[in-house]
Amino acid sequence: MVSHYIVPPYLLEQLERTVDDPNLRARYRQSLQHDAVLRARPAAGLGRATAEGGLRREVYDAEHETNLPGTPVRAEGEDPVEDLAVNQAYDGTGATWTMFKESFGRDSIDGEGLVLTSTVHYDRGYANAFWDGAQMVFGDGDGEIFGNFTGSIDVTGHELTHGVTQYTANLSYEGQSGALNESISDVFGSLAKQHALGQSTEEADWLIGAGLFMPGVRGDALRSMKAPGTAYDDPRLGKDPQPDHMSGYIETEDDNGGVHLNSGIPNRAFYLTAAEIGGNAYDDAGKIWYTTLTSGTLSETATFAEFAEATQASARDLYGEDSTQLAAVTHAWQTVGVLPTDQPTTGQPDATGQPDATGQPDATGQPDLMTAAQTELQPSTPPSLPPPSEDGGSRG
Hints:
By secondary structure, the protein is an alpha+beta fold. The chain has a domain at about 5-170: Elastase, domain 1 (Roll), CATH 3.10.170.10. Helices cover about 35% and strands about 10% of the residues. It contains 10 helices and 10 strands. The strands form 3 sheets. The protein has a 6-stranded mixed β-sheet with strand order 1-5-6-4-2-3, covered by helices on one side. Helix 3 crosses helix 4 (about 155-165).
């Protein structure tokens, strides 16, 4: 099990090359070195579940050190404290738990009441947040490019979903399976925010990390699910490099084979699915992706095409052969170039007897990955989180 980080290494490497302040450059370099050590180190453990299940949160303060979990500062049911980061971590983990429970019937990360442990104020000027296999860890940001990482619920939801994937499909963190791992975290991180804010598919911003950038940074977020490649364009950060279509797929040995880069392709497929279905994305579209993740049918090295086929199967099982949901899933994967465009939306064989858009090999024995025309989509302005409910969690 490796640690998963919300800010990809290529972005920190870019900042180390471009920022003027030598102190900041040293901080990014230290962060990269530190992250590399954590990535190579086995996770601390799998955490613990409560006997009775249900929502249980614990927040710790690292006090700018790196020892985990740190000093306990707030536990489940306790009143808010003066430290904003502590309260935001408490609320964000609660909102994520609530979304998984109310939308999919899942009790915490492992499905069995795992205690949601968070540590804030990790290290000094640490510009990242991560899931280490057992808990959430939040940095305070560098104060120049990144602010506090506890303020974005989609960041919290993203990292906690790495835990859900760990306990279910356990997708290998490399290449296309790694990009799916990242994309699934983006999907449910966004859904956690949408659920907490009571937003429909149309109302949502579909941004990951909205609010992380400090004033003066030219960017909306780390990633846009609606329009990959448009999240930022800043002299220090560079331009968002995510492709939104298989024609732009990035072959690289960096970033574990481009896991944060190519995740834009399945991200857009989910957005397009939700947009075509309409309503709340955490209802039908979210249920299709969740059912796929927890089906037990995915291999740890699943490709985009295999995952697309699995979402088709989930949509068919949940909603039927002639459902608008299955049609939306098929259209979405076709639009991003993962499934061929000549497939009937029902997913059944065509008149020639050849498989249609299941992504199966054609008569030559090679998978058909025909590309489709891209559409221009722009991200919207990120909203603010509502105040926490009486039990401390943000409710939709």
